[in-house]
Amino acid sequence: MLKIRKFAGIDVGSNAIRLLINNVIEFPDHRETQFKKSALIRVPVRLGQDVFTGGAISDHNVARILDTMKAFRYLMKVHGVEKYMGCATSAMREAANGEDVAERIKKEAEILIEIIDGKKEAAIIASTDLHQVIEQDKNYLYVDVGGGSTEFTIFSGGKIVTSRSFKIGTVRLLNEMVSESYWKGIEQWIREKTKAYPKISIIGSGGNINKLFKMSGRKPGTPLSYIYLNAQYQFLQELSFDERISELGLNPDRADVIIPATRIYLNACKWSGARKIFVPKIGLSDGIVKLLYNLELGERRLV
After folding, report:
1. Do residues 55 and 109 lie in contact, with contact meaning Cβ atoms separated by under 8 Å?
2. Rounded CA gap, 185 and 144, in Å?
3. pLDDT tens for each residue of 54-87
4. Element (H or E) spanning 148, and its range?
5. Can you tell me whether residue 220 is helix, strand or coil?
6. CA distances from 253 to 60, 190, 244, 285 (A)
7. Cα Rg, the chain, nearest whole Å
8. Each residue of 265-301: pLDDT tens digit?
9. Distance CA 294, CA 274 (A)
10. pTM > 0.85
11. Helix (H, G, I), strand (E, B) or coil at 8
12. Strand partners, 19
């Protein structure tokens, strides 16, 4: 008999906080378990603005996080979520009061949030449905752009070759907190790690590349070209912040960060020699749900 369960992932990012609730569909035969989005809630609490400029999360945003988490707890309850996992990334791990805020979330909202490092963040994202995108005989540079950090992972032969997290993200770039020498360090790493793979493509993840893909009107599975992305970058820069909202229909918290995000993807293409960018709709919250399920599956197999 078909079994439908509900799992959730909470992603406390530098630009927004997300709750993803997935239907996990288990089949009675040997078909692969399906993960279908039931609900996705995104709250634009820009923690990175506080942390990267002032070193700590402000009282105002602490209150907003607590309200968000209390709402998430009730949403998970009414959706019938049986398991969840919450992860906080760059902003929370760099905030002087990050651990204290996580403790308050646990106490006041009854939600557990684990502050994870860049390496674990990249590993969780890699546990998503990337295998459906990655072809065994091709090479890929996976680029996940966040508000505070960007994770780069090289795949070859269907496996991870190497991975690195850099403190470069859209909120940091907006606040002009990334030096030219830091950019140079990223360039050096990408060029060095990809030189053995002359034919390489980019796999992009994050809200900004998803929005760029949606704006392109392309069919799912069709890659964006470097030429298209570069043209979009020039076009977006020509528009004012207000025009990006009124003419393109972008949300205010997307209309500013989309430009620095595009810059990161373009540089990744330039330094790796990639000319195609594949955009599967995956992210940290998707990876969290898959990780939760796989951990449970492992426990079931041990019993």
Report:
1. no
2. 17
3. 999 999 999 999 999 999 999 999 999 999 999 9
4. none
5. coil
6. 17, 29, 11, 19
7. 19
8. 999 999 999 999 999 888 889 989 999 998 887 655 5
9. 32
10. yes
11. strand
12. 10, 41
